[in-house]
Design brief:
- The protein is of the alpha+beta class.
- The protein is built from 20 helices and eleven strands.
- Strands 6-7-1-2-9-3-8 form a seven-stranded mixed β-sheet, sandwiched between helices. A two-stranded antiparallel sheet has the order 4-5.
- Helix 11 crosses helix 16 and helix 15 crosses helix 19.
Amino acid sequence: MKEMAVLPIHQWAESWDKAEWAPEEGLGVPPERFYMASMPLKELRALANVSRREISERKKGTTNPGYQRPRDEKRSERIGRYIDYGYPLSNQKSLNPDEHRDLIHPGWLPSAILINIIPPGQTRRRQGRDIPVSEEYEVKIKEVGGSYRLHYPDPQKIAGDSRIGKDFIEPIEVIDGQHRLYAADDASSLSDDYEVPVVIFEGLSEQWQAYLFWVINVEPRKINTSLAFDLYPELRSSSWLERGETVKVYQEHRAQELTEILWRHPESPWYQRIELHGRRVDGHISNAAFIRTLTSSFIRRWKDEGRIGGLFGSVDKDGKERVIRWSRLQQAAFLIYIWRKISEIVSKGRAEWILGCIDDFSDASQEKKKLLESENLPAAFAGPDTLIAADQGVRAIMVVFNALLSVAYSDIDLENWEIIKVSEDDSNRYVSDALEDVRRHRKISDFLSEVCECLFNSSFDWRMGSAKSIADPDMRQLQMAYKGSSGYSLLQNNILKHLGENGSERIKDYITVVKDRMGK
């Protein structure tokens, strides 16, 4: 064991005694003190639970590729170069420091890294499992004769332990400052005695950590709200935020972000098919409609009289069971993947309604044919006669898929789909990498294929009521009923009914739960 002196900081105001603490929400009575110290960056790097393995290893199928909040690799690289050479060489990779020695300056990191000591036995959610801290690697603060000392295990032993991330997690977690910590991997001249100031909390719940991150970084407007929700998904279901406007702002802002990505990413079936400026084009959908669809499904409120909430918030009606820790770009990739599955099934399908759409489209104008050919999408998916390309269809599809995934998430291992790197500098590339990665998760892929096959290559008719190929008057009347505001809920209910009657046994079971939680 190693040890070092720490300085206790007592902070408690009498007004806090009036607070109504909420331990059931992870916001119980907080500690009255925290500590400050100076610690070698290399040692802190080994003790803290930030992933040491890269996404390339995940693609190779490496066991235990690690977990941490999305990492901007370029940012940590810049900090690492800053440690080596200071500014401005940190921002000028093209300049050789040996040729510009006059530009080498100190790479100081004077601001504190905030960390939390995880007690032995306490767990954190990693790769879909609750993993504890081992007693062997306990970190604790002891008081001896009025002074306080931090006792911690040999960092090198932890760094070389293959069980870390699989059977145990590191005993320290980073509240704020993870990219400074990652910089230890990128600074070529980092010495063993290069120290950083640290602020140390003990046994702080993840909800209190999210609160602390918020008041440090967001309330003073240092970073945007959307990024905060990516870094601390616990914020998505925090009641103290929900009573204000922040959660609503997050939902609307995130829906706009995702809509824009689906519109601009070349692998998205909605690529340039979302009208951002109010135009009306057959087979396209308006920006406002897509945003409303997302806020009604994947980004809907989480506490609504026990009803199913948005998968991108949590998968428990109270937001306490599980939070899917996906970033904005990972969420976008998942939505694109769902729509690609739908497009692929429709493209290969031979259901009566699909063939009908193909026949109807053969009579379309050359202008419409040219538009669809340029989009390389089947007429039954994006043509003028399919509900899949209409507001009502898009809304119903998203609501039903969100509900099914919220119920099935554990069985199909949604939590195990983790992306550990993120670069806002090339968001399209990140989304493409994420799409390639999710295809490798067979449980997710198989489940989506199963639902899509039952829903789109089947007797369920997705044609507009105006489609010429509908010969049966009763069928035409049914399809016409999907028009207008009442059509949204009618189509949604009929989808649930179809899946409940024609799906596999597991889909039928999921639909039963979905209907119960949706009050159907």
